[in-house]
Amino acid sequence: MSSVTTPAAMAVRYVVPVMALLLGACSGLSNPYGPDRVYSDKSEEAVALQVPPGLTDISDAEQFVLPGNRRGAVSRNTLLPGFDSVRFERDGGQAWLVLNQPPETVWPLLLAYLRREGIAVASTEPVNGLITSQWQEFDGEGGLRALVGGETRQRLAFRLERDGDDGSRLFTRVQVASAEQARTIGDTPKWPRAAHAPENTSTLLADLLVFFGASEQEASGILSSSAAEALFEDAEVLSTNAGSELLIHRGFVPAYRDSRAALVALGYEIVSEDDGIGRIRFNDGERDVILALAAEHVSAVRARVLDAEGEPMPAARRDELLDELQAQLA
Hints:
The chain is α+β, with helices and mostly antiparallel strands. It has two domains: 74-230, 2-Layer Sandwich (TATA-Binding Protein); 235-329, Alpha-D-Glucose-1,6-Bisphosphate, Chain A, domain 4. Helices cover 31% and strands 26% of the residues. The chain has helices at residues 7-29, 103-117, 179-185, 198-220, 225-230, 252-265, 315-329; strands spanning 86-91, 94-99, 121-125, 130-133, 136-137, 153-163, 167-177, 235-240, 243-248, 269-274, 279-283, 288-297, 300-307. Mean pLDDT is 71; it is low at 1-5, 20-75 and 140-150.
């Protein structure tokens, strides 16, 4: 049997593929996984998303807030707060700070930061904007004094550059070497060709960002002197509905390690421990006590003092132990 192709059928044969192509192109324009698009200037006037009952609104949760979005007084838990005078920038593996102040103003502030952190300066070259710290032996302690583990010696290098007429750019790098290599290099203020620990370099820059920003907010009256000083405490005692707790501004592993070392330094006997669940049982000379640690987020841990049964201790003795731990961790 022969088939007859009518004009209408021929039209359908050609129109359907064309329509499919057009529809595919339209869907590509609205594809959320497509390339970036320019939105209307009025997009920020859109009505906020209404969260249905039974679901949790995460818009204000810390882990879902973009760095730099917050204004007002900075806190230790703000990962990369935004300031008017300093910002964090990154290009590939290189990161730095951009400051709206000339190098002549930033230089003494950088030296003040090093004094605050107890980082011993080996040499300075103000003309070249270069500062290098002394070589240090890794001692197992947390904080910026021991940024890199597993190496025999380490030192920090800072380079300050002029950026335009009234600005600066601050770079920093961590240099690690064996004891023999460190002796050969000496205290020559040489800028390392590459950062040995880029992730720790970014951590150092983030801490410097908070330091410069806190100085800015203290000068403008947003932060009091005591509040600015509290930003750099390694641990602080907090009052909660469940009683006093110790907030340690470190990751879980170093917080656990340093808390155990603090108990030993205070003369308490370690009875048992389990770093998997964050429990250290020690004897305070009269009874067994449990130090319970739980991660607050990636860079903070909460520590509670409990009795041998895991129940809250009497407030007086609890607060005394927490104060001792805070002083030892400082």
